[in-house]
C-alpha cells in the first residue's frame, strides 16, 4: 500500500466496521449542526439587516432622542420632523459625516374592509422613499392614496392587493386607501400599515417613534461607523442613546444574548459529549480486538 502503516490500519478499521465509525461521525455531525444553527441565529438577531422587520429602512445608526420626540406630536408634526431631519443632515455634513437622516412615527387607529375591522398601527416615514422598504408582493405606494399592509392584517381583513380599505384616525377623521403591496413586520404583533411619505396625517395622535435613523452616504466601514457614533454623541449630548443598526435589532428582539449564552453552553457540552462517545467507542473497539486476539 502507498499509505503509511498508521493510515492503512486506520482506513482498514473504518472499511471493516463502517457502522461503528458511522456512529461517531453522525454524533459529530449532530453536535456541529447544533452549534452552527445557534451561531447563525445569534448572528441574525444581532444583524442590522433585520431592521426592515421593525418598520425601518436600512441605515448605519439609530438615535433615541428621548422626550424630544414629544414636540413633534402636534398638528404640524410632520413638517417639524422634516425640518429637524434637514438640520441634522446639515450638522453631520459640516462635521465630515455626510448622511441621510430619516425617522418613522407610529399612530394607532382602526382599519376597516367591508364587514371586517381591526386595530392597527400606521407607520409613516419621513426622509425616506417608499422603495427603501421591502415588500413581499405588489408595488410600493406611489401616492398619498395608496398603502401597504402586512400579510397578517390582510388575512385578518380578508383583503387583497387592489382592494380599498378605510382608516379611522384617532382625531375622528377617516380616509380611504388602495392596497398596493404586502409586507412583513414585527410592529404591533404584525398588524400594521405603511402609508406614503406624502400622506397628510395629524401627528397630534402619534404614539411615538423608534428613533432617528442615520445612513451615511460615503460608505464607511464598521470601524468608521463606530467612530462616527461617538462623534454624534458629542454633537448631541441630549440624545438618550446612539447605537448601530445591529445593536438596535439586538435590543428590540431581546433574546440575542440569551441564545448566545445557550450557544456557549452547547459548545462545552458538545466537546464533553464528543469526547465521551469517542472514548467509549475506542474502549469497545479495544475490547473486541482483545477478544479476537485471544481466540
Automatic annotation (TrEMBL):
It comes from the Bacteria. This is ABC transporter permease. It comes from Hominisplanchenecus murintestinalis.
Amino acid at each position: 500500500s502507498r499509505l503509511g502503516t498508521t493510515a492503512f490500519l486506520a482506513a482498514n478499521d473504518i472499511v471493516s466496521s463502517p457502522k461503528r465509525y458511522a456512529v461517531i461521525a453522525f454524533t459529530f455531525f449532530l453536535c456541529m449542526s447544533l452549534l452552527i444553527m445557534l451561531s447563525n441565529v445569534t448572528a441574525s438577531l444581532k444583524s442590522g439587516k433585520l431592521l426592515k422587520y421593525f418598520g425601518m429602512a436600512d441605515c448605519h445608526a439609530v438615535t433615541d432622542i428621548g422626550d424630544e420626540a414629544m414636540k413633534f406630536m402636534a398638528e404640524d408634526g410632520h413638517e417639524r420632523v422634516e425640518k429637524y431631519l434637514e438640520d441634522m443632515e446639515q450638522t453631520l455634513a459640516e462635521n465630515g459625516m455626510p448622511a441621510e437622516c430619516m425617522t418613522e412615527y407610529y399612530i394607532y387607529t382602526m382599519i376597516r374592509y367591508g364587514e371586517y375591522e381591526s386595530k392597527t398601527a400606521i407607520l409613516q416615514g419621513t426622509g425616506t422613499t417608499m422603495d427603501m422598504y421591502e415588500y413581499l408582493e405588489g408595488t410600493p405606494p406611489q401616492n398619498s392614496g395608496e398603502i401597504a399592509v402586512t400579510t397578517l392584517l390582510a388575512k385578518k381583513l380578508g383583503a387583497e392587493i387592489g382592494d380599498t380599505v378605510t382608516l379611522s384616525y384617532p382625531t375622528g377623521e377617516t380616509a380611504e386607501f388602495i392596497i398596493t403591496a404586502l409586507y412583513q413586520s414585527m410592529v404591533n404583533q404584525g398588524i400594521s400599515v405603511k402609508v406614503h411619505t406624502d400622506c397628510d396625517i395629524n401627528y397630534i395622535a402619534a404614539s411615538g417613534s423608534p428613533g432617528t435613523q442615520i445612513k451615511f452616504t460615503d460608505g464607511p466601514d464598521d470601524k468608521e461607523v463606530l467612530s462616527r457614533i461617538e462623534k454624534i454623541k458629542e454633537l448631541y449630548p441630549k440624545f438618550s442613546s446612539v447605537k448601530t443598526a445591529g445593536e438596535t435589532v439586538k435590543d428590540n428582539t431581546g433574546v440575542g444574548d440569551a441564545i448566545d449564552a445557550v450557544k456557549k453552553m452547547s459548545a462545552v457540552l458538545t466537546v464533553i459529549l464528543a469526547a465521551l462517545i469517542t472514548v467509549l467507542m475506542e474502549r469497545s473497539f479495544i475490547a473486541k480486538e482483545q477478544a479476537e486476539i485471544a481466540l
